[in-house]
Amino acid sequence: MRLIAAAVLGLSAAPDEARMAERQVAALTEMVRAVNAGDAAAYARLYDVDATITIPGSPALEGRRAIEDYEKDLLREFPGARLGFYAVWQHGPVAAVHYAVNGRTPAGRSMGHEGLLFYRFLPSGLIADERRYLDSLTPMAQLGALGPVPARPLPTLPGGLEAHTATGSPSEGENVALVRASLAALDSKDEGAFLAGIADDAVLDELIEPQPSPGRRNVGAWFERWTRAIPDARSEITGIFGAGAFVLVELVVSGTLDGPLGPIPAANKRFAVHRAAIFQVKGGRLAGISAFMNGKEIAQAVGRWPPPLGK
Q1: Exposure of 76 by Cβ count < 10 A (0-12 exposed, 13-18 middle, 19+ buried)?
Q2: Is the separation of the CB atoms in 155 and 139 below 8 Å?
Q3: Of 165, 191, 223, at which residue does a domain stop?
């Protein structure tokens, strides 16, 4: 896999940090190779024997054997699946990775989705734990399992991995503060304050929706959809760090689903779900937001799971 380094490792990082960053990239490169070769055993060997994978909306995978068995099942369900990584953001032992995967069922039906992974690496370079943010409803819609609802197109697989390493610079701290303020404005339903931090040509991609929202006007329309669907939404940040022009965030969002959210109809029930996002800052404003959460987890929480398949 081609590596485009956003920072020259070893110049701005301590030797141990540089080695950790190199080991992370090596592991991710091998992960793509293993998945695309259909080698579940090689994939699992990248994880510590006691590693855990958490996928909101599904049971956790405990231990290397469970991880290998799960990967075998996926490769059997979608033979020839192709994985690619767009970018990795590195902060010591923590790495966040934006990925895409495309595949086909044995019957030839196509599906694909994007997701965001948060890893914690051990000094050895093995993965100790992973938190995986994806939308299970996206491939279901593509395969026709949700009936006549708009389906998100298959993602274009990346040709290389961009690496962004946190430096602890003042600008990274300013970017984190901007993201915190934007999330606070969203929770308080202060549209003016939220849009004040959005660039004119910003793109907000809510991955549970069938398409991105380009431009400040469309971002404003997304704001209206979100606040109507969850008027009492509250976001608890569980993890956040800046790396260059980007900010990576993990959250727990709670509220009442009073309106439709993506393909999930209103339920007038409270829920709490896991969410993650990539924010890109340009010129002191947010130029890009990609937000990931599992519609399956929301549907389970509000009593809308399983969905009425094929209707």
Answers
A1: exposed
A2: no
A3: 165
Q: Is the pTM of this model over 0.85?
A: yes
Q: Which amino acid is at 29?
A: T
Token code pair at residue 171: 């600008």
15 with 145, same domain: the answer is: yes
Helices 170-187, 215-229: inter-axial angle, 10-degree rounding: 50
Mean pLDDT, rounded, of the chain: 94
In this prediction, residue 309 carries a pLDDT of 56
Q: Which residue has the tokens 């990274």?
A: 172
Instruction: Rounding to the nearest 10 degrees, give the CA dihedral for residues 38, 43, 49, 52.
Output: -100
Give me Rg for the CA atoms of the chain. Answer: 19
At 20-78, the pLDDT tens digits run 999 999 999 999 999 999 999 999 999 999 999 999 999 999 999 999 999 999 999 99
Is the distance from CB of 190 to CB of 218 less than 8 angstroms? no
Contact 311, 147 (CB under 8 A): yes
Q: What is the DSSP annotation of 164-202?
A: EE----HHHHHHHHHHHHHHHHHHTT-HHHHHHTEEEEE
Residue 65 lies in a domain: yes
Q: If 0-12 CB within 10 Å is exposed, 13-18 middle and 19+ buried, where does residue 234 land?
A: middle
How far apart CA 176 and CA 49 sit, in angstroms, is 34
Please check whether residue 13 lies inside any domain of the structure. Answer: yes
Residues 86 and 197 in one domain: no
Please indicate, yes or no, whether residues 258 and 151 belong to a single structural domain of this protein: no
For the stretch 248-284, pLDDT in tens is: 999 999 999 999 999 999 999 999 999 999 999 999 9
Exposure class string for 209-221: b at 16+ Cβ within 10 A, else e:
beebbeebeebbe
How far apart, in whole angstroms, are the C-alpha atoms of residue 151 and residue 144? 8
What the block records as the tokens of 124 is: 């050895």
